[in-house]
Amino acid sequence: MAATRSLSHTVAVITINYPPVNALSSPVRHALIKEFGEATKDPSVKAIVLAGANGKFSAGADIREFSTSALKTISLEDMNETIEASRKPVVAAIEGVALGGGLELALACHYRVANVQSRVGLPEVLIGILPAAGGTQRLPRLIGVPAALDVIIRGRHVPATEALQLGIIDEVVQGNAVNAAILLARKVIGSNLDKRRLSTNYVPSNPNMESFLDTAVEKAKKQFRGAQAPIACIEAVRASVQKPYKHGIEKERQLFTSLWATGQPQAQQYAFFSERNVAKWTHPSGGRWDTVTPKPVRTAAVIGLGTMGRGIATSLAKANIPVIALEQDAQQLEIGKKAVNGLLEREAEKLLKQGLAPGTVLAPVHFTLHFAELRDVDLVIEAVYENTELKKEIFRKLKSVCKPDAFLCTNTSGLNIDEIAAVTNHPDLVIGTHFFSPANIMRLLEVVRGQQTSLTTIATAMTLGKTLGKVSVLVGNCPLFVGNRLLGPYVDQANYLLEEGCYPEDVDKVLEDFGITMGPFRMMDLAGLDVGWRARTEKGLTGNKVLHGTPARQRLGNRYSPLPDMLCELGRFGQKTGKGWYLYDKPGGRIAHPDPWVKDVLHKYRNTHHIKQRPASPEVILERCVYALINEGFRVLEDGIASGPEDIDVIYNNGYGWPKYRGGIMYYASTVGLGKVLDVLEKYHKEHPDVPSMKPAFLLKKLVAVGEPPIKEWRTQVGNLVHKL
Ligand SMILES: CCCCCC/C=C/CC(=O)SCCNC(=O)CCNC(=O)[C@H](O)C(C)(C)COP(=O)(O)OP(=O)(O)OC[C@H]1O[C@@H](n2cnc3c(N)ncnc32)[C@H](O)[C@@H]1OP(=O)(O)O
């Protein structure tokens, strides 16, 4: 049964039972209405408690139903109206989560009791829609427009204690919320419920409300560039102000329908499920997430307390895993210790605000200079700077100090895992963990399997990622893995566009207007231009190793842009030096100003190389940069480095500022049409045969040839292809 009913003296307890998260699917709505109807008819029942089985109230509407007709059978809001109208008091007993439709259902109840560990919220905006079961109308009536907007637009999960302060919850309890709700229900039997029916109240307003809402729209446009859901949320809340509830509900529905037509909800919901799918990893050998048991990680060590190591140590402590943090000398250790303790203090403050005791959640971090102290840890994460020799030296030391079954992870953004694993006695226990900076905040983790990495090691690293609150994607070992590998052709196109007549700000604007958080030039300035320069120098693409007589704009017979090297040779490394593709107020400054010096250099460069200046249209800029990314994405699939398009999309959505409302780069390709992507790549490749990265990938051609199947079928096509290669 999707919902069950039991009786506790005069109180009926109706429990939603629909694993795993008690989503309000069509069977649940039917069962709820049935049980509710019977409880209201039963004269021995004087009050009703609504609860969720297995410690979760409800995660809201069943997202998988949105594209089916099931959504139309008993709407959530009709159900909520029935509950709110009840003459018998109804109390929601919130444990775990009450999200989206789950909170909307709770708002339709007359009272809400929550366990202290629970979270409530209206996260619909994160899946491209608005709370369309009365949430945009009841919440402002309960807590006022500003507080309601803050909860709705950010889609944040509000901890129970904060929800109590805001007035969303009536009572927070340390123990069982159902028992507390039954007690409250008994107390309120026979009381007047008029004021408790939120839909009958009016939203508190003030004369500046319209301008407040106008400002909110402007802010949301800037903050969520291109995302339609936050704007729709504000418009729905606007419709709640001094208007009857029915008016607002109609507007809510109408906005939901318009949003659906934009395609953004479908893209965001694809992104939502992709994040869950990547946890279900598979290995070319046949090993899978559900057949391999991870080992527990009770203690961990982090080596190197630079920016990455600090974030990783904090992440582990936050996940209640005691950490030993190691540095090479006393001074570095002291600096690292201060930084980690600072980050942990901030975490402790957040926990205190949630009414939780930090000591019970944050594990201790022990700082040391001695490798010998790592002898008992279950897992080590090495996070020193990107240098294979240095990492190998550390892994040699680990081989002699760690227990034989300790897992050894290297935090690298692209170095060869197999080469590092080869210096140990147990290459099967070595794995790459590519964290993104700041590691205690960024959600993405690329888990990189080497040739010899065992399935247990993979399972352990993937599970650790989940424990750290990350979205972990298993990828194969190749230079730069997935995320950074795709950047190569993208940045190349951006550089060629400068050669041909664009300026950094033109290219960045087009990509930022498209929704990418930071255009390629601002991104390079932030990351530091010297990083790529050093790599190119090592490869002999620039610097002294370049053979005399090599044309400036060619390497190994292919097109090459020396522009970034020219900047680096002048010490322009980006933000850190105050100059790069842009000019900054000072070294470390963050505000990028277009730089007349760069313009001048580009003019001279074009003259020197007799390049006719042809500024590209926004459409061409977008196509060249984004299709280069997509094409490399197909190659990564062909090579078996990522196992499906969802993996690439999750990486770009969570680590590279790709707008989630476009689903991901591969999802975007599917919406543009693979035929079109192929045509443009073919055209460009014909014009520039010296740019091999724009030669259409075999997999792309194959998918077009078999009639452009929907993205959910690509994984099978890739499987067949990789099998045949
Ligand atoms: C005019 C038309 C009117 C239409 C009205 C529409 C109104 C809509 C209101 C809504 O309620 S929209 C949904 C709002 N809710 C959410 O966005 C919550 C989404 N879920 C989460 O944030 C998390 O899943 C969680 C609840 C916090 C639990 O996190 P946890 O890490 O513990 O587990 P997961 O791996 O994320 O999820 C487990 C499992 O459950 C599936 N799932 C989660 N939420 C939903 C859902 N709302 N609908 C369907 N399925 C859901 C998830 O996909 C996982 O399943 P899988 O098989 O492993 O993929």
Q: Whole-number radius of gyration?
A: 28 Å
Major sheet size, sense and barrel closure: 8 strands, mixed
Low-confidence stretches: none
Amount of helix: 40-55%
Secondary structure: number of strands:
21
Unique ligands = ligand LOW37U6P
For this structure, the CATH topology of the largest domain is 2-enoyl-CoA Hydratase, Chain A, domain 1
Mean pLDDT level? 95
CATH superfamily of the largest domain: 2-enoyl-CoA Hydratase, Chain A, domain 1
Structural class: alpha/beta
Keywords: Fatty acid metabolism, Isomerase, Lipid metabolism, Lyase, Multifunctional enzyme, NAD, Oxidoreductase, Peroxisome
InterPro entries: 3-OHacyl-CoA_DH_NAD-bd, 3HC_DH_C, 6-PGluconate_DH-like_C_sf, ClpP/crotonase-like_dom_sf, Enoyl-CoA_hyd/isom_CS, Enoyl-CoA_hydra/iso, NAD(P)-bd_dom_sf
Subcellular location: Peroxisome
Domain 3-hydroxyacyl-CoA dehydrogenase NAD binding: 300-477
